[in-house]
Amino acid sequence: MKRRLTAAVLSAAAALGLAAPAHAADFSDVAPGAWYAQAVDYCQTQGLMSGTGEGRFSPGAAMDRAMLAAVLHRVAGSPQASEAAGFTDVNPGSWYEQAVNWAAEAGITSGYGGGRFGPGGPVTREQLALFLWRLAGSPGPEGSAQSWADQGGISPYALQAVDWAHSAGILSGVGGGRFDPQAHTTRAQAAVVLMNYNRLYNDQMLSLLDNLCAPSGITAMEDGTLLITDVYNKVVWQVKGGASSVYAGGGTVAGPYGQPVGGYNDAGLAQSYFKYPWAVAPFLDGYAVSDAENNAVRLIRTESIQTVNGSTTERLATTQLGVAFAYPTGLAADEEGNLYVSDTHNNAVRKISPKGVVATVAEGLSEPMGLCWHDGALYVAESGADRVVRIVKGRVELVAGSGQPGLADGPAAQAAFSIPQGITVGGDGTVYVSDTGNSAVRRVRGGVVDTLAARDMASMDICPVSPVGLLLRQGRLYVCDTFSHRVFVLDPEKPE
Questions:
Q1: pLDDT at residue 14, rounded to an integer
Q2: Burial, 437: exposed, middle or buried (Cβ in 10 Å; 0-12, 13-18, 19+)?
Q3: Which residue from 487, 484, 453, 450 is spatially nearest to 466, judged by alpha carbons?
């Protein structure tokens, strides 16, 4: 079943270091340069929060529980509750009644006990984290849990929520290593947190970085920050909480059509050059980048970038920089610290050990590109053969694809793909594929292929055109599209 994709905002102006366009909120008490002004404007234009009357937003006023229930109800799309929650202090017909009923039915709140919801009560910081965590489906934290100086003040039932909210970049501490869990949330603070949450989970159609960005590969750091390779600007971006900045790669001169020409230089993060950074994956103490047009694998470390100078005992071509690759593209890491590389124009897949030894995993493939390691197997988007395979202990096994180009769903062995370039695998073994030649995102589950999203020529909606890199994170599928200049975000299990 085909489904239109939703897209996440990954902050155009911040990504390029440009000044954000002036969007002064229409409130007399919100100064254009205030730290919360952008969030107030965002929440107003998204219909999440409104003013308090007489042209005021009241940024310093406490956010109460009725307000929060109403806002979260809007974030969720204003669904109807099937029955009243039965809180004795929620007045029938009140402006917040439907929202509270929904929140109780959805498991977001159970009230204070004794049949009370406490609509006028202030929202504490830990309550804000808890409500949003439950709304998001109670996910785990993005990385290691933060140890707060006031950890003992966080209610046990809110600990997971606070860890998640902080690691996802939704809710930060207050300084000095403190979270201040029982502090009351102001309306300004709530606006910022809601903007962070909505950008991460619900934004409908926004572009990544800017018109001239071509996202190709994507991975997540331990703290949840996304790293995204950009084959247009020849850099690697970092994106967290809607804010974007260049993580690695320096600017080079522009070619005749304005596109940076890129280069090859190992130096500091901002002084190094890439030619065509295709994919990114964790390796050693940093992140490997396949620099396809430089025929090299580069390693981003804390303060510098260097070429991975691999050695080998095989009869592989070598240069003064070690084992030579021919247009390396897909990357994947396993639990033992090995890095797998699609040596695309050599029709092979190589493995680089943590000690830098390069060995062949498979040969005789047809232009392998996207890679994903899952449960002891290496999954490969075999672009030249229009199929998906996996490599298990040196054996190449078919996952899906008849080998004939086309767009056809159905039993895996009979389904048709066209130049698949990206691949990832979910925890349940479901395989997701960027079917690049078909401008589609496909899924292989239970031996059957279906289409999650495909370009619709008759629709004006933004849709995938050239999907490449994929990342499955917290139940959402991130899709890098080099042509659309976007990272789309798809909920694979969301009904049509």
A1: 28
A2: middle
A3: 484
Provide the phi-psi class of 12: left if phi over 0, else alpha when psi is between -120 and 50, else beta: alpha
User: Hey, how many other C-beta atoms are within 10 angstroms of the C-beta on 268?
Assistant: 12
Amino acid at 307: T
DSSP-derived secondary structure letter, 195 = H
Give the max Cα distance, the chain. 79
Q: How far is CA 332 from CA 352, 456, 474, in A?
A: 10, 31, 19
CA-CA distance, 182 to 172, in Å (whole number)?
A: 14
Within 10 Å of residue 251's Cβ, how many Cβ atoms? 13
Beta bridge partners of 277: 291
As a whole number of angstroms, the distance between CA 415 and CA 388 comes to: 11
Q: Smallest Cα–Cα separation from 474: which of 195, 171, 226, 154?
A: 226
Per-residue pLDDT at 494: 55
The answer to whether the pTM exceeds 0.85 is: no
Q: What is the pLDDT of residue 1?
A: 32
Question: What is the pLDDT at residue 76?
Answer: 81
Query: What is the per-residue pLDDT for 204?
Result: 37
Where the chain has pLDDT below 50, the residues are 1-25, 204-211, 460, 495-496
Q: Distance from first CA to last CA of the chain, Å, rounded? A: 8
Question: In DSSP terms, which residues pair with 410 in a beta bridge?
Answer: 449
What is the Cα–Cα distance from 201 to 205, expressed in whole angstroms? 12
Question: What pLDDT shows up at residue 5?
Answer: 36
